[in-house]
């Protein structure tokens, strides 16, 4: 088949006026190359389709049978929905979730409301447009403060965990001033952090679970922040499977599949949880565009440690999309 790969790459020289993590969600050229190589090794003709204003012209020239979408988009809380919306308008099949799912999952408060409405636990939260709005909370500190619609730990720092209202207000100001969007203030969940890879559609399956275990602080203080992700080899251990009781893993899996369905995910996603003081998994967020960098992205790490080679992971993701679309690989 002719497969188009839609993507955004980190700029070599980002504008200095933007936050240091402004392009944290974007992929490296190396990651794009790995995915292209994997698709080519499966016998497909691969065409690169950089996201942006020139995307439509590139798409028309490439004329792919299907687009493998990993593009994060540019600007606004609906940015991840831009490219699949264009593909739907032009009638081009693509891999991954649709525009609605990509929009609601990037907006963390909306995703939490949808998941909670289906009966899956999520920490209590409030959203603030400015620090001036912040007066009190209906739940106690500690809390974690983060941008309401970002991914890849953008805007999440070690200081994002606030132990009193003054610190929380300061972090609300940091988020709203720096990222020009609402701040999500969420009750901090003190237990293990677990991310779950989910693949497929009818039915979806748990592809792996990974515990992000801190090396330098207790779990009760751990924040999977930008600083930690950039220095993960020294700061965390990735445990596949998590060092948790079988009953806890089963419940995490149940909640992951439930959230996947509630949010309308397709083909592949990664869903994050933290366990509360009673061991109950609390939904944190869902990423339907999880990183696919081998050796670095959480989903490829889970696959590798469960005996699934990188090329096989890419094959399965594409296969689920083709099956969903009623297409056969040439």
Describe what this molecule looks like in 3D.
This protein has 330 residues and is an alpha+beta fold. The chain has 3 domains: 2-95, Rossmann fold (3-Layer(aba) Sandwich); 114-118 and 190-325, D-amino Acid Aminotransferase, Chain A, domain 1 (2-Layer Sandwich); 124-187, ATP-grasp fold, A domain (Dna Ligase, domain 1, 2-Layer Sandwich). It is built from 11 helices and 13 strands. It has helices at residues 29-41, 55-62, 79-90, 99-106, 108-117, 165-179, 226-230, 232-235, 246-262, 298-305, 310-325; strands spanning 2-7, 45-50, 66-69, 94-95, 125-128, 143-147, 161-162, 183-187, 193-200, 204-214, 236-239, 268-275, 281-287. The protein has a 5-stranded antiparallel sheet, sandwiched between helices. The protein has a 4-stranded parallel sheet with strand order 2-1-3-4, with helices on both faces. Strands 5-8-6-7 form a 4-stranded antiparallel sheet, covered by helices on one side. Strand 12 and strand 13 form a beta hairpin. Helix 1 (29-41) packs across helix 11 (310-325) and helix 3 runs antiparallel to helix 4 (99-106). The radius of gyration is 19 Å and the shape is globular. The model has no long low-confidence stretch (mean pLDDT 95).
